[in-house]
Structures are given as structure tokens and as C-alpha cells.
Write a structure and sequence with these properties.
The complex is a heterodimer of chains A (256) and B (302). Chain A is built from 10 helices and no strands. Chain A is mainly α. Chain A has one domain. In chain A, helix 2 packs antiparallel against helix 3 and helix 3 packs across helix 9. The mean pLDDT of chain B is 90. In chain B, a hairpin with a 2-residue loop joins strand 9 and strand 10. Chain B is elongated, with a radius of gyration of 22 Å. Chain B starts with a strand and ends in a 6-residue tail after the last helix. In chain B, 41% of the residues are buried. Chain B is built from 10 helices and 14 strands. Chain B has 302 residues and is of the alpha/beta class. Helices cover 34% and strands 27% of the residues of chain B. The chains are: A mainly alpha (256), B alpha/beta (302). Chains A and B meet through helix 1 and helix 4 of A and helix 2 and helix 3 of B.
């Protein structure tokens, strides 16, 4: 296990992915608008019609911040599994990159930064929809953006760890069933976790999405409190560990 | 020296695929690494372009150690890998521009180089096309152009013409010859012995992870095999007689299947090929393939 020896050249990997993304970004915007709007309509208005208030706010207000993180998570995980696997295994893009001054560390760090950027892009779209709907009541929601970047780096590196083991696209299905879906549904986006039995709450709190949803919900109510430091420290350490792991596992896979 | 390998060794697990080879490549030279599949050629190439770490021994490129100075070395290298790894998400010219970006070449300079390289490999009309619409030969030429985008001091080509039709092959070799004339140092592997003989100043023939012979291809063939070769297919029943007759005349020969390869260059006795009852007889110039056959008793391209 070695510390990633990446350089600023990782930006060139990011730029390659951005160049390709720019070719169909209008399509991407449509997709990212559609997904959260479905959530907001189905759960917020449909289900929300039966719920008069949730912890003192409308149901739509309750789920709004979590939807940002939930949708960003899906974007990041898809990009760093399907996307990265295609570049690595099918198109051999990584192989082509490491014949230039780029090192494999640069490539993987560039992929993580890119995954996080995709998440930030998605989050920005949903954030603006929610802002437009008047569901935010505190300027502290601006802090959602650095949180989304942290989320993006963490989930991109976890996804690349999975990709480093993948021999085909089927692996993404396991990842979805065993990690993405639980992390999404157990994160407390749709209802407070106190509804769950203690053991399930225990699992939920280890998953990366739960602290993000809790903190962002507090921010949207204008609350900044000391209890946030613990979960934030956990997320940052988790992100660093997964980044180191992802780079090392990818090296093991690609350097022969 | 551009490349200097000493006791270069590579193991995958417990399998030793490159077994302590020594070679060097001088500036401006065209050096060919030849040999059958599994000889260790591609692994050697990958170690040269810093994509594969050495197990032991030393390898310097531009007098720099490949393990420590890989960024500096790779900045001055052009690589044409065995597998086509063009970027399918980008167009023809974008592939060159993006590669220039990896090397940190300024945008206007990159565009200028990309356009002249597309002209050099005769793909200027394909500039805006998608990679999937190119033929195999066009892809190979584009990879060659991509490998030249940083104006490399050393160009490394792993099987640059494999899988191409004769015309496309000819075009690639023609481009390589003109690069060589401009003083670019070239290291290549190939299956095409005739092409290797024409373009390489020196060749190293590898088999089972070792270099079995090294030198100027024409001199090697002349020195070890001679200038001519007979391919002869005798009538089956005359085998025993033929072996005896050839040994008597001191004619070196190898049998592969039903065919005899005779190298009469160093024959000591009176002898003519026509005297032997045969089904088929071919008299031709001796090649690197004959050299390999004579040294290993095996065919080079099976």
C-alpha cells in the first residue's frame, strides 16, 4: 500500500473526460433534470399529500436536500463504474495515457476528480430546481456544494475500488444491489432513521450517505452545529482511505 | 546510447518471460526485435516505455533509469502499441489534440502539428471522422501519427503492421523509412522478416526470453545461413537416401514437415539440388526466417 504519487498532470485526465462530456452535455442535463424531478413529484407531492408535516417542515422540504446527495451519488457511481470500466477495459484509454508523461496514479486521481465533478454538475442542477421551488430557507445551503465535492471524491474512489475488481459489467449489478441501493434507501432521505430497528440504524450510520443527508437537512434549516464535526471527520478519513485504496488496487490491476 | 539494457529480466509470478537480456541502441539507429509469439518482445518493449516494471537488471533510456525518471523519458518517447487504443469517444484530429494535451503541448502548436501529421499519414480528409469509421490500416496510421505528436527522439513500435493488407503495410513502412532518414531512433518488433531486413540497421532475434543472435540483418543471414536457400519436397520414400546424400555433400539442412530447407552456402562436396527426385523445388534468397530456423530448428511464424 503506497501513498498515491499523483501530480498536477491528473488535471489532463479530467480534461479528457470533460472534452468528451461536453459533446453531449445537453442530453446529460435533461437526464439529470428528469430524475430528481420525478423524485420530487412522486414523493414530495404524491406521497407528501398524505403527510402534513415532517419534523416541522413540509414533506417536500424534508426530502429536498437528500435528493441532491442521492442523485449525485448515483451519477458518481455510474461514472466511476460503467464509465471508468469502459475507458479502462474496452477502450484501453488508460493504457494509451500511461504511454505519455502521465502515470497510473495521475490517471486514477483524474478519474476520481472527474467523478466528483459529474456529481457536482448533477447536484447544481437539482439545487437550482429546489431553489426555484422556494424550498430552501437559509443561506447556509451554499455549504451543500463543498459537501457534494466530498461525497463525490468518496463515492468515486469507492466505485473505482469496485471497478478494479470488475471483469465485466455484471459487477456493477452487485455493487448496485449491495452498496448503492442500501446507501440510498437507508440514508434517511425519505423518512427519519429512528423508524428503523437499532441494528439497521447502526448499518445506516456507517454508510456514507447518512451523515451527508443529516448535515444537509440541518443546513437547509439554517443550523450549523458542533455535532457535524464527527461525521465530517469520518467522511474525510473514509474518502482519503478509499482514494489510497483505489489507486493501489488499480495499480495492481494495470501494472504488469 | 539511447537505450542500454543490462541483464534485463522480467518475471510474471514464477514465469520468467525475459531472461537477463543485454542490448543497446545507438542514436539514429533502427533496431528490430524479432521472434515468435511468446518470445518476450512485447514485454521488453513495455519495459522500455516504462509501462512495465523490471524484475531485475538495469534499463536506461536517454541515459536515465526507467524506474526513477519515467516522466522525463516518456515525454521524449513516441509509442505505437500492439493493440489499437485510440480514443473512440473522440474524432481523428481530437485524438491527436488530446494526446498533445497529455504531453502538455500548447493548443496552437498542437493544432499545427496535428494537421501536418494527418497529412504525413495521409488522413487529412478523415480529420473530423469518428474512429469507428476507420479501416484497420487507417487506425494504424493514426496511431503512428499520435506517437509522433511530441516529436519523439525515440519511436517505439510494437507490431506496427500486423493485420494490415499489403498496401497498408507498405505505406506504414514507407513512413518509417522517411522518419529514419530524418534521424529518429526507432525500435520495433515485427513478424515481417522481409520488411525488417529492409528497414532495420540491426536486429536482435529473441526466443523463449533470450536474445539468440544480434547484428545487421543482411550480414547475419550471409554469415550464418549463406546467401541462398532451397526449399525441397522429396518423394516420401527417398527421405533416407536424401539425408545421407546431403550429409555426404556437407550441405546444412533442416526438415520441417515434408519440406527440406537446404542452405548450400557452406557445402563441402559436389552437389546439385536438381539431382534429387522431388515433387517441388524452390530456389530463393536466404532470409532471417532461415536464420531463425537454422538456429532454433523452429519456424518463426507458425
Amino acid at each position: 500500500m503506497a501513498w498515491p504519487a499523483a501530480s498536477f498532470l491528473a488535471i489532463r485526465v479530467w480534461k479528457r473526460n470533460f472534452t468528451v462530456f461536453r459533446k453531449h452535455w445537453i442530453g446529460a442535463i435533461l437526464v439529470y433534470f428528469a430524475d430528481p424531478i420525478f423524485y420530487l413529484i412522486i414523493f414530495g407531492i404524491g406521497l407528501g399529500g398524505y403527510i402534513s408535516s415532517m419534523e416541522g417542515e413540509s414533506y417536500l422540504e424534508f426530502i429536498a436536500p437528500g435528493i441532491i446527495f442521492g442523485t449525485a451519488m448515483i451519477t458518481v457511481c455510474m461514472e466511476c463504474t460503467y464509465g471508468s470500466f469502459t475507458r479502462m477495459e474496452i477502450q484501453k484509454t488508460f493504457e494509451a495515457m500511461i504511454a505519455t508523461p502521465l502515470s497510473i496514479d495521475d490517471v486514477i486521481i483524474g478519474e476520481i476528480l472527474w467523478g466528483a465533478s459529474r456529481g457536482l454538475f448533477t447536484a447544481t442542477i437539482i439545487f437550482s430546481v429546489i431553489l426555484f421551488l422556494g424550498l430552501f430557507h437559509s443561506p447556509w445551503v451554499i455549504l451543500i456544494f463543498p459537501l457534494v465535492v466530498l461525497e463525490g471524491i468518496l463515492l468515486a474512489s469507492i466505485s473505482l475500488v469496485v471497478t478494479s475488481f470488475a471483469s465485466n459489467y455484471e459487477y456493477v449489478n452487485y455493487y448496485y444491489a449491495l452498496f448503492i441501493a442500501p446507501a440510498f434507501y437507508l440514508s434517511g432521505i425519505f423518512f427519519p432513521l429512528e423508524r428503523f430497528p437499532a441494528w439497521l440504524q447502526g448499518i445506516a450510520y456507517v454508510l456514507p450517505m447518512t451523515p451527508l443527508v443529516r448535515i444537509s437537512r440541518a443546513l437547509s434549516k439554517g443550523v450549523i452545529a458542533q455535532w457535524m464535526l464527527g461525521p465530517l471527520t469520518w467522511l474525510i478519513l473514509f474518502a482519503i482511505a478509499c482514494t489510497v485504496l483505489a489507486v493501489n488496487l488499480m495499480k495492481r490491476r494495470l501494472i504488469k | 546510447m539511447i537505450i542500454c539494457a543490462t541483464n534485463l529480466t522480467k518475471k510474471f509470478g514464477s514465469v520468467e518471460v525475459v531472461k537477463g537480456i543485454n542490448f543497446h541502441v545507438a542514436s539514429g539507429e533502427c533496431f528490430g526485435i524479432l521472434g515468435p509469439n511468446g518470445a518476450g518482445k512485447t514485454t521488453t518493449m513495455r519495459m522500455i516505455y516504462c509501462a512495465s516494471p523490471l524484475t531485475s537488471g538495469t534499463l536506461t533510456v536517454f541515459d536515465l533509469d526507467v524506474q526513477r525518471h519515467f516522466r522525463t523519458i516518456k515525454a521524449r518517447l513516441g509509442v505505437v502499441p500492439q493493440d489499437n487504443n485510440l480514443d473512440d469517444d473522440l474524432t481523428v484530429i481530437e485524438n491527436l489534440l488530446m494526446y498533445a494535451e497529455y504531453f502538455g503541448i500548447a493548443k496552437s502548436e498542437a493544432l499545427h502539428r496535428a494537421e501536418s501529421l494527418l497529412e504525413f499519414v495521409q488522413l487529412q480528409e478523415k480529420s473530423r471522422d469518428r474512429i469507428s469509421t476507420l479501416s484497420g490500416g487507417m487506425k494504424r496510421r493514426l496511431i503512428l501519427a499520435r506517437g509522433l505528436i511530441n516529436r519523439p527522439h525515440l519511436l517505439i513500435l510494437d507490431e506496427p503492421t500486423t493485420g494490415l493488407d499489403p498496401e497498408a503495410r507498405h505505406l506504414v513502412w514507407q513512413k518509417l523509412r522517411s522518419l529514419k532518414e530524418n534521424g529518429t531512433t526507432v525500435v520495433l518488433t515485427t513478424h515481417y522478416m522481409e520488411d525488417a531486413e529492409q528497414v532495420c540497421d540491426r536486429v536482435a532475434i529473441m526466443d523463449l526470453g533470450t536474445i539468440i543472435v544480434e547484428g545487421n540483418p543482411v550480414e547475419l543471414v550471409r554469415g550464418i545461413v549463406g546467401t541462398e536457400c532451397y526449399e525441397l519436397e522429396p518423394f516420401p520414400a527417398t527421405d533416407g537416401f536424401l539425408d545421407h546424400r546431403l550429409r555426404d555433400a556437407g550441405v546444412p539442412f533442416h526438415k520441417l514437415g515434408a519440406t527440406y530447407y537446404l542452405f548450400p552456402g557452406s557445402a563441402t562436396g559436389e552437389w546439385t539440388a536438381e539431382e534429387i527426385p522431388h515433387r517441388r523445388l524452390l530456389h530463393r534468397r536466404a532470409t532471417l526466417e532461415d536464420l531463425f530456423l537454422k538456429l532454433t530448428g523452429k519456424e518463426l511464424n507458425q
